[in-house]
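Input.
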Amino acid sequence: MEKLLVVLVMVCATSLSAEPWNKAADANLTATQNAYSNNWAGTEMGLVSWVFNANGLLEKQLSAKVNNKNTLKLSFGQTINQVEETDTLNNSLKKWSSPVKSTDLIDFESMLRFTLGVLVDPFIAGRIETQVLDMSDATKYLAINPIKFTESFGIARTLAKQDKTEWNARIGAGLRQNFNRLVAGGSETTNDGGLEFITDFKTPLAQERITYTSNLQLFQALFRTGTPPDNNWKAPDMNWENIFTAGITKYLMVNLYTQLLYDKEIDTDMRIKETLALGLTYKFI
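Output.
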C-alpha cells in the first residue's frame, strides 16, 4: 500500500510532459451567529457556528496513454452554544460553552488512468481519509486520527463530457486499511478488501447560476482480517454526497449540502447530514 502511494506521488512530481497541469482550487467560509442577554424572557439560547470548506484539483495528461488526477477535500467547522447557568445569588446567566466540532474531513486521492482509446480505461488509485482532530474520547484528543487508506484498481469510463457537464464512473477491486490510535488498550488496525464502485457527476443549472455536484461511493467487503463477532462488515457501505452551489455575487454564495451514509458497523440505519449555508467563497485558480 505504501509503495503504491509513493509511486503515484513520484509520477506526479517527476513528469516531464509538456502538457500543462489542469489546476482548480476554491474555498468558502460560512458562519451563523445569534445571542441573547441574561434578562431575555424565554428559553432561547444563542449560537455561533462556522464551517470552512476547500476543494483542490490537479490533473495532467502525463503522456498519450497516462492521465494523473489528484483531488483534495478539506472541511472543518465548530459550534458554540449559549448555556443557562446560575450564580451564587441564583441569578440566571447565559454563558458560552466550549466549541464542539460540527464537521471535520481530510480526503486526498491520486489516480492514474491509462487512456488506451478503448471502451474503458484501466486505472489504479490511492486514497487517504482522516480528520484534523479526533474528539471521540472526551479525556484525550488526538490529531489526524483515525486514518483510512484505500488502494483500488479496475476500469473507468467517462459517461458524459460536454461543456461544463461531466459524468465519470469506475468499478474495480479495493483494499482498505483502518488505523485507530484512540481505542481502549492502545490502537487498532483492521484490513478488508472487496469491490468498489464510484461515480461523480457535475453540471451547471439555471443558466449556469447554480452548480450541482454529486458523488456516490459503494464498497462491498468480501473478506476482512480480525473479524468481529457479528457479520455487520459484510453489509455494503455507501457514501452519497450532493451539493447545490449558487453564486449570488463573485464572493457570496449559497450552498446546500446533503450526505447519506450507511455503514452497518457504525449504525444499522441510514445516517443523514444536511447543511444550508450562506457564506463567502473565493476561487484561487
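The helical segments are 2-14.
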